[in-house]
Design goal:
Blueprint lengths: L9 E4 L5 H15 L1 E6 L14 H14 E2 L5 E7 L2 E9 L6 E2 L2 E6 L2 E4 L2 H13 L8 E5 L5 H13 L10 H7 L3 E2 L2 E3 H7 L6 E7 L7 E8 L2 H13 L3 E6 L6 E4 L3 H13 L9 E5 L3 E6 L9 H5 L10 H9 L9 H12 L3 E6 L2 E7 L13 E6 L3 E2 L1 H12 L5 H8 L3 H13 L3 E4 L6 E4 L6 E2 L2
Parallel strand pairs: 1-2, 12-16, 21-24
Antiparallel strand pairs: 2-5, 3-6, 4-5, 6-7, 7-8, 9-11, 10-11, 12-13, 14-15, 14-20, 16-17, 17-19, 18-19, 22-23
């Protein structure tokens, strides 16, 4: 399993013999993006080869980073297993650039590390200080031509539908002017985040085999606009959590997720609304056997805690006020400062534990997965544990619902109940049996259908 390819924020090294080169890459990524990732035990094409890792290995790496990089950084250094091969994974960030490695300043260009000249270093420092302002209202290097017509048109239609913008879509330029998102032909950064398809934003999503960040079962990276990445992340979580199915006699089955989807969506939107966009750290989704974490590189307001906002005692402190206002127009955020309260309330109603964790370099919402997604029987409803793994189509769903309510029906009778031909129903019954969702008990003529408990069911997309 390849875990990606080298980029301006990701570097692979075969072994600890390349430690010096690895430290230079760390500094180059810090200076270009404020952070990144480095793996030892991975070929430069992303193929894991593994390496021998002793306790001294991690200590040597940590000491080399501490001794050779100035100003000091405090990376996370972990052993991970990729395709059952042991590798070292280092994540790091810092906002005190320029950083030096072995007395020199390096910058990341594509997947290479280049040393800066004295003149380039002076220019670098001047540009760095220019970022110490409200970022989302500053001008980007993008113009009107970079705006995706369909995206901005959809935005205005959504804002119209909820009554928070009262003008219709005309042209890109007119809409951007009315929203105050363009100046001298350049887009403000908030417009760049929302309306430019090829965006600088990335999200990393991963599934781990257990409770630790060790063995990957899956890892993905996606890039795009804020709206695109929220949608991608929500779908990734939806497809990898457990769902309980309620069969109550109706054709349409009821599905209940182990974690409220409204809470997940709120956490995702907030992670982009309040993140620190000058940080090179990506938003992250990590799915573990016992929890789901949604991380963003945006520290919490000093002197405040999440509980202050959950209790409703504090007003919203907006890191990106223009972006927040734009997301309010489309009701992506309902009102300022209430996101954490809505997450907490939704989880409380569902009996799900949620934690808001303050980190030195970011903020995380942690949803704890129930120990057991129990089968229950309430008011005559048949409830089953399911995980979205086995795909069934709409006709198979209908057949499954009918036989769950009357196990003695023949294929002809099922066909009549769902308005399909007997041949079609027979084909789908065979498919359901192959997927181990139903079984025939007894003879073909005198037998009955049995719906199998604890099956894994998912909708066909």
């Amino acid at each position: 399993m390849k875990i990606g390819k080298e980029s301006e924020k990701l570097e692979f090294k075969m072994s600890g013999a390349e430690l010096k080169e690895g430290i230079i890459s760390i500094v180059a990524m810090l200076n270009k993006h404020g952070g990144g990732e480095l793996y030892f035990g991975i070929r430069n094409d992303g193929t894991p080869v593994g390496m021998d890792i002793a306790e001294k290995t991690l200590r040597d790496i940590s000491q080399a980073i501490d001794n050779r990089i100035e100003p000091k950084i405090y990376p996370q250094i972990n052993v991970v297993y990729v395709d059952e091969k042991s590798c070292v994974h280092i994540t790091f960030s810092g906002d005190d650039a320029p950083y030096f490695a072995y007395g020199r300043v390096y910058i990341r260009v594509a997947d290479e590390d280049r040393v800066l000249s004295s003149a380039e270093l002076k220019d670098f420092i001047l540009k760095k200080n220019a970022w110490r302002i409200v970022w989302d209202s500053e001008l980007s290097d993008k113009t009107i031509s970079d705006v995706d017509d369909a995206v901005i048109k959809d935005y205005i239609e959504r804002a119209n539908s909820v009554g928070r913008i009262d003008f219709a879509y005309t042209t890109k330029e007119e809409v951007l002017n009315k929203l105050g998102l363009i100046e001298n032909g350049k887009l403000k950064n908030a417009a760049y985040l929302l309306f430019v398809g090829s965006n600088m934003l990335e999200i990393q999503m991963a599934i781990f085999a257990g409770t630790e960040r060790l063995t990957f079962n899956d890892i993905k990276r996606e890039s795009g606009s804020v709206a695109q990445l929220v949608k991608v992340a929500e779908k990734y979580i939806r497809n990898n959590i457990r769902w309980r199915v309620v069969l109550d006699g109706s054709i349409k089955r009821k599905e209940i997720p182990e974690i409220p989807i409204d809470a997940i969506r709120e956490a995702l939107v907030n992670s982009y609304c309040h993140r620190l966009y000058t940080s090179s750290q990506n938003n992250e989704i990590t799915i573990h056997s016992n929890r789901i974490e949604i991380y963003n590189p945006g520290t919490f307001p000093e002197g405040l805690t999440p509980q202050d906002f959950i209790d409703g005692n504090e007003r919203s402190i907006k890191r990106n006020p223009l972006l927040a206002q734009l997301m309010y127009y489309t009701k992506d955020i309902e009102s300022f400062g209430t996101g954490l309260k809505r997450i907490a309330n939704a989880c409380d109603d569902a009996g799900v534990k949620v934690e808001f964790k303050l980190l030195k370099k970011g903020f995380a919402v942690i949803f704890y997965r129930p120990d057991e997604f129990l089968t229950t029987d309430k008011n005559g409803d048949v409830v089953r544990n399911v995980v979205r793994n086995v795909v069934i189509n709409k006709t198979e769903q209908a057949v499954l619902m009918v036989v769950s309510n009357n196990s003695e029906l023949t294929a002809d009778e099922i066909a009549k109940a769902i308005s399909k031909s007997s041949r079609t129903v027979q084909r789908h019954l065979e498919s359901l049996q192959k997927k181990n969702l139903v079984r025939r008990v007894g003879s073909t003529k005198a037998g009955t259908w049995e719906v199998i408990d604890n099956v894994d069911i998912g909708d066909e997309q």
